[in-house]
Specification:
The chain is of the alpha+beta class. It has three domains: 2-172, Uridine Diphospho-n-acetylenolpyruvylglucosamine Reductase, domain 3 (2-Layer Sandwich); 176-254, Alpha-Beta Plaits; 256-330, Alpha-Beta Plaits (2-Layer Sandwich), CATH 3.30.70. Helix content is 28%, strand content 27%. It has helices spanning 7-16, 65-73, 87-90, 98-104, 111-114, 117-120, 149-153, 187-198, 222-235, 250-255, 276-282, 324-330, 338-351; strands at 2-4, 21-24, 38-42, 47-51, 56-60, 77-78, 121-128, 133-137, 161-169, 171-172, 176-182, 204-210, 213-220, 243-244, 265-271, 286-290, 295-300, 315-321. The strands form five sheets. A five-stranded antiparallel beta sheet has the order 4-5-9-7-8. Strands 12-13-11-14 form a four-stranded antiparallel beta sheet. Strand 16 (286-290) and strand 17 (295-300) form a beta hairpin. Helix 8 runs antiparallel to helix 11 (276-282). It is globular and about 65 Å long. The chain starts with a strand and ends in a 12-residue tail after the last helix. The model is unreliable at 138-145 (pLDDT under 50).
Length: 363
Amino acid sequence: MMQVATVDDLAEVIRSAQGPLRIQGGGTRPVGNPVVGSPLQVGLRGITLYEPGALTLVAQAGTPLAEIDAVLADHAQHLPFEPMDHRALMGTGGEPTLGGMVAANASGPRRLRAGACRDSLIGVQFVDGTGTAIRNGGRVMKNVTGYDLARLMAGSHGTLGVLTEVAFKLLPRPEKVTTLILPGLDAPTAVAAMAAALRTPFEVTGAGWAGGNVMLRIEGFATSVADRAERLAAALARFGRAELAAADPWPALRDVTGFAGREGDVWRLSVAPTDAAQVAGRIEGEVILDWGGGLIWALVPPGTDLRGQLGSIRGHATLVRAAPETRAALGAFHPEPQPVAAIAAGLRARFDPRGILNPGLMA
């Protein structure tokens, strides 16, 4: 494993590369098609700017996420998109890093209200496939390239460039968090209950279903949370008696720990919430619903291809966990429509003309 600790060193390694490079952050998120290449890890660490009053953070891409969380907690702030930790689900070690988080656009149940990782990202610095260092966005930088590179880099899995620094807008941590549980609901009833909750004015920040239980999160100022939770429970009385969660269920839902350590492939499907019950009913396996049903996690027998089970329903399916031969055979990512594929190919040709950064990972 080659590790670089400066932007100049990274640029030189990429410029002089004679073959493909397998880009790795903390090694916790091996999502995508298998990549053959020389492993390269970014070792740039540390916070370069933190202004709590301006709700702004800039840090190097190799900084562990736990380090960021600890600093933000001291100021009652957080990254609002609640990034997923893949380690339990994927059976990996290491430390999640900011760069890996951005490259995967790792986001959690609060996406309902706060958006995804890319929606909080205000700037990036990276080295492209030619070995050129590029900065885009941030507090004072203007977009001079014609691209919104912060959004492009989020979810690009290292195929457009190797991140070296990222900048985020932050939000205050909620003073109080309460979760209501509606137990014993099947998938269609659960989707109906979550849809009803999200139509209320009570600002639900998480809506999920696992093990037959619907989970609904309300957060904010303590007095407001108590009142909204009581009124939400009353509004959903037709679905059963709501209970207060005794423990915080959201890390387990966010990280899909219910599928950790269990045999089978894990898929992530994104569909319209109104289609969630129908899609879940077609899956021969175990299902968890997140984001009000728009995100479906499925544990299925090894080698199962769930894409055909979408039928005419619009959406996409990503193979998150499977044996390398299964990922190679099925492809980890959903095939892109031709116009989208053409745009993606054009971007890769622009930023990685030699095709050496994680080649084939998103094919």
